[in-house]
């Protein structure tokens, strides 16, 4: 069966520090991968998605970037965090076509 | 542009009462529609999708292309239905899922 792992679950970082959130999928190959940010009252905002290794589509210009160094690995990064980067980040995967399967999320607090 | 709206941020009903969570979308075509649910301390998960035409946990949703709606309904709400519900759409051949802002359902005893 397929599983998705996302870490760290919680992270507290000072403004200006770097960020790396990691997501891996097991039990499937060549999945579509996604990073969403979940904010109260605003739903899920798509940040990045990837249909293959090295292929990243950015939906919202911002202080974040994403990379897919391996088929089942998706990384969300920032070189210098801003206060506004605080939030709950969700990684997800899907088949083509198919439903989304979500990770448990990472709560980032920038101080 | 693709857009999903859920007019109610919070919906409170009593146990045993009918419940309807509204979802409207704007899309020039025939999208796939989904309802996702997030129970307390659990991950976001699929509840149902319109192409399946299933009833999951007593919930049903009918796609109304004329009204561009995909409302979620249950005739008799249960306390365990309390959760955050998100409506979402996807182009049949696309990769993006667009989510609505979500409705928090609270079923009171």
Topology, element by element:
The complex is a heterodimer of chains A (about 110) and B (about 110).
Chain A (H helix, E strand, L loop, with lengths): L2 E5 L2 E4 L5 E8 L5 E8 L3 E10 L2 E4 L6 E6 L2 E6 L8 E8 L5 E3 L3 E5 L1
Parallel strand pairs in A: 2-11
Antiparallel strand pairs in A: 1-3, 3-8, 4-5, 4-9, 5-6, 7-8, 9-10, 9-11
Chain B lengths: L2 E3 L4 E5 L4 E3 L2 E3 L5 E7 L6 E5 L10 E2 L10 E3 L8 E8 L6 E3 L3 E6 L1
Parallel strand pairs in B: 2-11
Antiparallel strand pairs in B: 1-4, 3-8, 5-6, 5-9, 7-8, 9-10, 9-11
Describe the structure.
- The complex is a heterodimer of chains A (111) and B (109).
- Chain A has no helices and 11 strands.
- By secondary structure, chain A is mostly beta strands.
- Chain A has strands at residues 3-7, 10-13, 19-26, 32-39, 43-52, 55-58, 65-70, 73-78, 87-94, 100-102, 106-110.
- Chain A is globular and about 40 Å long.
- The model of chain A has no long low-confidence stretch (mean pLDDT 92).
- The termini of chain B are far apart.
- The mean pLDDT of chain B is 92.
- Helix content of chain B is 0%, strand content 44%.
- Chain B is an all-beta fold and 109 residues long.
- Chain B has strands at 3-5, 10-14, 19-21, 24-26, 32-38, 45-49, 60-61, 72-74, 83-90, 97-99, 103-108.
């Amino acid at each position: 069966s397929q599983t998705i792992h996302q870490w760290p679950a919680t992270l507290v970082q000072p403004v200006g520090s770097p960020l790396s959130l990691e997501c891996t999928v097991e039990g499937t190959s060549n999945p579509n991968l996604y990073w969403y940010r979940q904010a109260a009252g605003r739903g899920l905002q798509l940040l990045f998605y990837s249909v293959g290794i090295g292929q990243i589509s950015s939906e919202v210009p911002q202080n974040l970037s994403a990379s897919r160094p391996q088929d089942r690995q998706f990384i969300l990064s920032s070189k210098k965090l801003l206060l506004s980067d605080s939030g709950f980040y969700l990684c997800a995967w899907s088949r083509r076509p198919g439903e989304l399967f979500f990770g448990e999320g990472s709560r980032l607090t920038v101080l | 542009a693709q857009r999903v709206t859920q007019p109610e941020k919070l919906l409170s009903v009593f146990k045993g009462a009918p419940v309807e969570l509204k979802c409207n979308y704007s899309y020039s075509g025939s999208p796939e529609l989904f309802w996702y649910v997030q129970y307390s301390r659990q991950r976001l998960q699929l509840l149902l999708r319109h192409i399946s035409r299933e009833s999951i946990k007593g919930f049903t949703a009918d796609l109304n292309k004329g009204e561009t709606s995909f409302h979620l309904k249950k005739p008799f709400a249960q306390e365990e239905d309390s959760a955050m519900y998100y409506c979402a759409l996807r182009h049949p051949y696309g990769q993006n899922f667009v989510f609505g802002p979500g409705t928090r359902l609270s079923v009171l005893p």
